[in-house]
């Protein structure tokens, strides 16, 4: 446990007493989190109830019954990339973001696009979180009031879009003021999600066994065999969707001083988290497919109507009156994630503003709350704008955004993993451990994700890709994903013209792990 | 309660109007007691249980640097006769951060800015002030919104009621008045209905109030108070009214005065706990106020 004083004292030395709680030099609470706590945090970052309702449908649509297989395989690149994240986070903890790492390792251009990729991925997931929260808000309302018509309000754009904007604004306001989620609340949210999902699995399997299922489908070991997927495009699409399903897991692995035993707790908690999550995902998948089948009619999990939000359709028939708990779990899970995720694009925007990769106004900090101000507003406006546009041009907005999101996560994870290898390139040969964790593992993970990114991007040009929504003969996923990246390129060029300092390497110079000064940030 | 010291003040500074109000009150207190001012800003940090993801911390040094810049500007704006230092501390809660800073810097009191927009545009407590007023181990001073004064304090007023626990505040106020050589008002609040008020003799005598000090404080304090009154160092006032608002309205407020309250009986030993009456009073007074922790028993 670190006992260095938390007070940073530019002009005098405090007569410091030993602090009551252990705190690191950065002021982080140290030694507070055990394995269970870290696991709860990890599960919360993944938000399984939300992720399953959003991600399971598109994944089943892509790989059919092979969802368990693709989840098992998709976890591998995630793990490899997370090793790289951990190395970067441990080395550059105080100035580290995907953006700064890749600028330092490669150059301002790649770094800029990587920062943009992260902002885009988080803005896309925010819009999806808000939309799912709104759907289940009305579903819950209809269940509480016993009026099924209310659940349909969410299909009315005049109700749906304004409600989503209100949810986004609330989340942004909470993020701006600073979050204060207590340990108790987080334990409660996570336990509740896991229990409700477990109840769904039990109910689905019992009914399947009793012949009460919609389309009882016998569980087969083939579902776990990735070699059953013979088409590489299908495989790539499945991988990028499963990356979305695990997104957030790496948070546990990069935990450090806040854990009781930084050597062991993060690794063990990350293992426990992934075991819980994979078990949960596979059981829910088995429950869904066994109960509903993958037919494209009625309640079938292959019916495109059902794939946008699988629990919105299935939790009623499977859980009966208990379905109200599923609505509460998903509403709580997605709204909690909406609040916490709202913080992250604003931080990358702040950093990019600070290093003049964005106009400097984006680096403004609220004197009252000491949080990013312009950047938080920009994140909320971006989310609102992205959602409104997607909802207006796509009939299957949720589905298409999830697929585009998988694409975007592969993009920024891939670049960040490669940045790790390149940043540490002069320190790879010191030991076998360094070579594996700084070089080989993130290198393989990064290459795999970038390949998945390009494959999926090319495939998604096809108008029948994903949900099958298209515009001008081009698939909606391609339009959303590449449109956002192209917008980034335009903004990057505009920034290069207006604010050349960043692109000249003046604000954030290129460096390697040997020469990087991790203790300070460049004062501009 | 040991001898009052404003020797080492923790100023809860932010680059906002409440922050400047706190700074002004700190300057006034420093000029009264010669205190050193520690300008402290809390840098908000994620509560790990909030599960913010991605969890990188690249924003922290940027916020740290901006906060330091604000602190340096505040320090540069201080009058030349004020001794000061600036500090940042990271915590997920402002109140917890300030308490840790107080402990580490050995602070003798925490000074906060009041919020605007409350009733009568005077005090409206924020979450941080509320937490500190109910848990601080050292006195907590609150500047009213828009507090401009930087001059030495010219009066101390101690408020106490007919409840046990008055001892600490009387003792503190007497000692503070003596060590800073300030005139003191001892104010006792009496809540009476109309009939009681009518039957009250014109003007309650100083002697009655001294008797009250003896009853709710102790003999020694009463003697000390009587002594100070005799030397014109202290004045006594009994404020009567049917409720807090009424009683407080009857008082006149001095320029550059600091009003001292004790903690309620709910306070754990050596911690502050703003009583319900004090909480009501502070909405009605235009002066800075200070809540002192409960007596150790």
TrEMBL record, chain A:
Annotated membrane topology: Multi-pass membrane protein
Subcellular location: Cell membrane
One Pfam family per UniProt: AA_permease_2
Keywords: Cell membrane, Membrane, Transmembrane, Transmembrane helix
PANTHER family recorded: AMINO ACID TRANSPORTER-RELATED (PTHR42770), MEMBRANE PROTEIN (PTHR42770:SF7)
GO cellular component: plasma membrane
Main location: membrane
Transmembrane segments: 27-51, 63-85, 116-141, 157-176, 188-209, 229-249, 270-294, 314-338, 373-390, 402-423, 435-454, 474-494
Protein's UniProt name: Amino acid/polyamine/organocation transporter (APC superfamily)
Comp. bias intervals (Low complexity): 1-17
Residue ranges of the region described as Disordered: 1-25
GO terms, molecular function: transmembrane transporter activity
From TrEMBL, chain B:
InterPro entries linked: Rossmann-like_a/b/a_fold, UspA
Domain UspA: 6-143, 164-293
Gene3D superfamilies: HUPs
Pfam name, any one: Usp
Protein family according to the UniProt entry: Belongs to the universal stress protein A family.
Stated name of the protein: Nucleotide-binding universal stress UspA family protein
Organism in which the protein naturally occurs: Enteractinococcus coprophilus
């Amino acid at each position: 446990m670190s006992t260095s004083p938390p007070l940073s004292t530019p002009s005098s030395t405090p007569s410091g007493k030993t602090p009551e709680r252990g705190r690191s030099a950065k002021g982080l609470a140290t030694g507070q989190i055990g394995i269970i706590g870290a696991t709860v945090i990890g599960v919360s970052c993944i938000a399984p109830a939300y992720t399953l309702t959003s991600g399971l449908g598109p994944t089943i649509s892509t790989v059919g019954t092979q969802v368990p297989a693709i989840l098992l395989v998709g976890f591998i690149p995630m793990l490899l990339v997370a090793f790289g994240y951990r190395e970067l986070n441990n080395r550059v903890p105080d100035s580290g973001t995907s953006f700064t790492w890749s600028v330092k390792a490669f150059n301002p251009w790649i770094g800029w696009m990587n920062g943009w990729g992260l902002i885009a991925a988080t803005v896309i997931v925010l819009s999806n979180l808000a939309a799912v929260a709104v759907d289940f808000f009305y579903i819950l309302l209809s269940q509480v009031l016993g009026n099924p018509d209310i659940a349909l309000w969410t299909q009315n754009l005049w109700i749906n879009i304004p409600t989503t904007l209100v949810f986004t604004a609330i989340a942004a306001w909470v993020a701006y003021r600073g979050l204060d989620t207590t340990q108790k609340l987080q334990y409660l949210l996570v336990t509740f999600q896991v229990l409700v999902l477990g109840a769904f699995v039990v109910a689905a399997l019992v009914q399947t066994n009793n012949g009460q299922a919609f389309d009882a489908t016998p569980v087969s070991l083939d579902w776990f065999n990735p070699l059953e997927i013979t088409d590489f495009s299908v495989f790539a699409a499945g991988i990028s969707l499963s990356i979305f399903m695990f997104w957030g897991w790496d948070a546990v692995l990069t935990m450090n001083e806040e854990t009781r035993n930084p050597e062991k707790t993060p690794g063990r908690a990350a293992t426990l988290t992934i075991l819980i999550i994979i078990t949960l995902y596979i059981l829910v998948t088995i429950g869904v497919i066994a109960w509903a089948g993958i037919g494209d009619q009625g309640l079938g999990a292959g019916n495109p109507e059902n794939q946008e939000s699988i629990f919105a359709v299935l939790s009623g028939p499977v859980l009966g009156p208990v379905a109200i708990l599923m609505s509460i779990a998903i509403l709580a899970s997605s709204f909690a994630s909406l609040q916490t995720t709202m913080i992250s694009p604003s931080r990358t925007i702040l950093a990019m503003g600070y290093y003049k990769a964005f106009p400097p106004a984006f680096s403004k900090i609220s004197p009252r709350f000491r949080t990013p101000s312009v950047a938080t507003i920009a994140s909320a406006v971006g989310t609102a704008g992205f959602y409104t546009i997607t909802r207006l041009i796509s009939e299957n907005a949720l589905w298409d955004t999830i697929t585009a999101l998988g694409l975007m996560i592969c993009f920024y994870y891939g670049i960040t993993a490669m940045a790790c290898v390149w940043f540490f390139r002069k320190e790879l040969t010191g030991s076998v451990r360094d070579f594996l964790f700084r070089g080989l593992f993130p290198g393989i993970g990064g290459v795999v994700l970038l390949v998945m990114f390009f494959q999926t991007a090319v495939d998604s040009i096809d108008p029948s890709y994903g949900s099958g929504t298209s515009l001008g003969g081009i698939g909606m996923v391609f339009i959303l994903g590449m449109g956002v990246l192209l917008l980034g390129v335009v903004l990057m060029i505009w920034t290069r013209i207006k604010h050349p300092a960043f692109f000249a390497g003046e604000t954030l110079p290129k460096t390697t792990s040997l020469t990087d000064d991790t203790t300070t940030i460049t004062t501009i | 309660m040991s001898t009052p010291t404003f020797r080492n003040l923790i100023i809860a500074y932010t680059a906002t109007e409440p922050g400047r109000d706190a700074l002004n009150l700190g300057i006034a207190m420093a000029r009264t007691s010669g205190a050193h001012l520690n300008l402290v800003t809390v840098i908000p940090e994620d509560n790990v249980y909030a599960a913010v993801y991605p969890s990188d911390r690249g924003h922290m040094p940027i916020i740290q640097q901006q906060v330091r810049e604000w602190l340096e500007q505040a320090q540069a704006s201080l009058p030349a006769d004020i001794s000061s230092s600036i500090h940042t501390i990271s915590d997920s809660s402002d109140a917890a951060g300030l308490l840790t800073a107080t402990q580490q810097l050995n602070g003798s009191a925490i000074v906060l800015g009041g919020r605007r927009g409350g009733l009568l545009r005077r005090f409206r407590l924020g979450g941080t002030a509320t937490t500190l007023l109910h848990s601080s181990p050292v006195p907590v001073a609150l500047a009213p919104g828009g507090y401009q004064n930087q001059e030495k304090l010219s009066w101390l007023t101690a408020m106490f009621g007919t409840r046990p626990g008055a001892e600490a505040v009387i003792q503190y106020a007497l000692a503070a008045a003596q060590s800073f050589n300030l005139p003191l008002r001892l104010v006792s609040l009496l809540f009476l209905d109309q009939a009681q008020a009518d039957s009250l003799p014109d003007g309650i005598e100083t002697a009655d109030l001294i008797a009250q000090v003896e009853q709710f404080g102790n003999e020694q304090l009463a003697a000390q108070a009587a002594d100070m009154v005799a030397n014109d160092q202290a004045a006594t006032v009994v404020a009567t009214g049917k409720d807090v608002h009424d009683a407080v309205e009857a008082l006149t407020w001095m320029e550059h005065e600091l009003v001292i309250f004790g903690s309620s009986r709910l306070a754990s030993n050596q911690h502050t706990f703003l009583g319900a009456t004090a909480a009501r009073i502070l909405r009605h007074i235009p002066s800075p106020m200070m809540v002192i922790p409960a007596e150790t028993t």
